[in-house]
């Protein structure tokens, strides 16, 4: 993988993702990639997370360069997938790639068909009561 962009995550998201990792039965390579991202991230309080950063619960518009397609998805934990018609799990390869990025950043991430380059186009945080 090439040099990855800086990412910023909230401490609350990191704690919850780590809980999910502990009880997961996911493929080891996916878990390893996600743990590597958590380890290299700058961790901040949720209140200090920049508004343009992808966090759990955000609606994210992104482009996968290899297929030149744009998608809009809500980044969710596995138990929230049914709550959003456009949900993507944090444990899906592209879901893991989105976490902590900002508008304009792109990341190379292992996908089902080899490395994919994912670029963030828009980030919408949920309303505070959601």
UniProtKB/TrEMBL annotation:
GO terms for biological process: DNA-templated transcription elongation; regulation of DNA-templated transcription elongation. Pfam families: GreA_GreB (PF01272), Rnk_N (PF14760). Keywords: Elongation factor, Protein biosynthesis. Residues 5-44 form the Regulator of nucleoside diphosphate kinase N-terminal domain. Gene3D superfamilies: 1.10.286.20, Transcription elongation factor, GreA/GreB, C-terminal domain (3.10.50.30). Residues 50-124 form the Transcription elongation factor GreA/GreB C-terminal domain. GO terms for molecular function: DNA binding; RNA polymerase binding; translation elongation factor activity. The keyword Metal-binding does not apply. InterPro entries: GreA/GreB_C_sf (IPR036953), Rnk_N (IPR029462), Tscrpt_elong_fac_GreA/B_C (IPR001437), Tscrpt_elong_fac_GreA/B_fam (IPR023459). PANTHER family: REGULATOR OF NUCLEOSIDE DIPHOSPHATE KINASE, TRANSCRIPTION ELONGATION FACTOR GREA. This is Transcription elongation factor GreAB. It comes from Aliidiomarina soli.
């Amino acid at each position: 993988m090439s040099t990855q962009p800086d990412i910023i995550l909230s401490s609350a998201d990191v704690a919850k993702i780590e809980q999910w990792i502990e009880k997961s039965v996911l493929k080891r390579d996916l878990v390893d990639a996600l743990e590597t991202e958590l380890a290299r991230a700058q961790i901040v309080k949720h209140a200090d997370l920049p508004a343009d950063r992808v966090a759990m619960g955000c609606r994210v518009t992104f482009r996968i360069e290899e297929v030149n397609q744009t998608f809009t998805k809500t980044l969710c934990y596995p138990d929230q997938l049914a709550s959003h018609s456009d949900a993507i799990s944090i444990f899906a390869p592209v879901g893991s790639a989105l976490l902590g990025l900002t508008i304009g950043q792109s990341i190379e991430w292992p996908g089902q068909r080899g490395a994919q380059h994912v670029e963030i186009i828009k980030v919408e945080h949920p309303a505070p009561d959601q």
